[in-house]
Design brief:
- By secondary structure, this protein is an alpha/beta fold.
- It has helices spanning 22-27, 68-75, 110-122, 142-147, 167-177, 189-201, 235-238, 249-257, and strands at residues 2-9, 14-20, 33-37, 45-53, 58-64, 81-82, 84-89, 100-106, 126-133, 151-156, 163-164, 182-186, 206-209, 225-228, 231-234, 241-243.
- It folds into 2 domains: 2-89, Elongation Factor Tu (Ef-tu), domain 3; 100-257, Rossmann fold, CATH 3.40.50.
- The chain contains 8 helices and 16 strands.
């Protein structure tokens, strides 16, 4: 049982929970995720760790309510408990001093992107972050991203905040104005597909996180199979991050619809 320490609603369907998990808080690295369960018969939900506080023994999770299980988790209040929190799982992000790293996140994808932004900055990189959402209300964790970024560009589909346009417009703006050594993208699969197509055109190495397709988190169920470089890979044990230019995004999008 893991106690909910605090709760914040970003929007009607997106909630941030700070959860007691001292061992995970000490061991986790950027890119790691956990499996959570609410109730003895609850569904296993994979969630990337957005932040941790080893001193307090807590981890931060950002959850989008899209079904019964995630709605139950989002309905929990401080003082209540998650039945299970298992982790850290997956492969940690490869953090190096690349030079200039462009980190672009869409919607709730900004939450798993945040620890990568922080780690890239701590490694000595110049970090440029592009945050995107359909509308202003869907831009999350902006202050935290700004604290670890050298520059932040906000893109909204409706122009209600930042610059009107898609995330790719913001990414291309950065690539055209300065040398970018690496791109990391996390968000909806369709967004990552078009970011990947764009960065491939400019020959910029790009990593994409495929956490949205995970189910059991151990490689047993096979639901997270993806084709990367023509080979079948399992996101939960070999990822969740892969070379975006090698991912078969059309296959991924078809599997997500299932």
């Amino acid at each position: 049982m893991n106690k909910i320490v605090s709760k914040q609603r970003f929007s009607e369907n997106v909630t941030k929970l700070v959860v007691e998990a001292p061992l995970i808080a000490k061991a986790r690295r950027a890119g790691h995720f956990v499996i959570v369960r609410c109730g003895e018969k609850g569904e296993r939900i994979p969630l990337t760790i957005a932040d941790s506080d080893p001193a307090a023994g807590t981890i931060t999770l950002v959850i989008q309510a899209v079904g019964d299980s995630t709605r139950k988790i989002c309905a929990l209040e401080p003082g209540e408990f998650l039945t299970d929190v298992v982790g850290p799982l997956g492969q940690a992000t490869r953090i190096e001093n690349y030079g200039t790293v462009l980190c672009c996140g869409g919607g709730v994808g900004v939450a798993p992107l945040l620890p990568i932004i922080r780690a890239m900055k701590e490694a000595g990189n110049r970090v440029v972050s592009v945050l995107a959402g359909r509308t202003k209300d869907l831009i999350i964790l902006e202050d935290e991203v700004r604290a670890s970024s050298d520059d932040v560009i906000i893109m909204t589909d409706d122009g209600s905040y930042g610059t009107k346009g898609l995330v790719t417009a913001g990414v291309e703006e950065v690539i055209k104005r300065e040398k970018v050594d690496k791109v990391v993208t996390i968000g909806p699969a369709i967004m990552m597909k078009f970011v990947s197509l764009l960065t491939k055109k400019y020959k910029v190495p790009t990593e994409a996180s495929l956490n949205a397709i995970m189910v059991d988190g151990t490689g047993m169920c096979g639901a997270c199979r993806v084709s990367v470089g023509g080979k079948t890979r399992f996101v939960c044990v070999e990822g969740p991050e892969f070379d975006a230019h090698e991912i078969d995004f059309d296959e991924l999008l078809m599997r997500l619809k299932m």
